[in-house]
């Protein structure tokens, strides 16, 4: 039942975007900008402003993000070096195993799985992970030519971080948000989750898949099997429990993210490997996430 009620709706929405891209010639960039600059910031601001923001939870999830990211990065680097991969292949392995799809895939999944009660934690995880992972993706894709300053500047230009900062400021100053502003923001935010999944399907339809069994098997193992164990260990060490623990583990066990593919295409860091890992981990996550949900709820 968990597959039918939670996982299947996610993949049917992704399939809708996949078919839409194959059958039409929509402007993908325009839809992406609508999501990035309008719908997602509206969702984040309206969701946070309606709740009592728990700064202790935000701090715990911030620590979770740091330890989880460092653990996955160290693991991918050690494995890549031990297998004597060339620098570009090591970079592709790190991109596809460290940077998970906590946004387009993870945020809707967490919402379907835990509903409105899990929205605060899932949004905080989405935002907290996007700041370092977006920067890390640029650095890994550029390799030795990476400019950390440029990566950070580009990352902080994304409006979703402004939405979080504004929501935190409004809550800290105890400024009431009038209904005539909150209601349209809520309405815009309702479009964010389905659009994120549709965009994921459209991007997958644009992906040119190359089957390289060795690399894809390793990347899939790390992303879908090892990552949940790392998340379980980190949440245990930090004492994160309850619904927040379930959301954190689920959202960081999602497939490889789409964003690294864009950077790997731009900087030539084995986009064939990155694209293949995204496609395969997305398909196989239907099984891995179903099993994970059963374990989390059991």
Automatic annotation (TrEMBL):
Subcellular location: Cell membrane
Transmembrane segments: 6-21, 28-49, 61-80, 92-111, 123-148, 187-205, 217-240, 273-296
Protein name per Swiss-Prot or TrEMBL: Transporter
Keywords: Cell membrane, Membrane, Transmembrane, Transmembrane helix, Transport
Species annotation: Desulfuromonas versatilis
InterPro entries for this protein: Mem_transp_PIN-like, Na+/solute_symporter_sf
Domain of life: Bacteria
Membrane topology (UniProt): Multi-pass membrane protein
Homology family: Belongs to the auxin efflux carrier (TC 2.A.69) family.
Record's keyword annotation contains Protease: no
Stored PANTHER family: AUXIN EFFLUX CARRIER FAMILY PROTEIN, SLR1864 PROTEIN
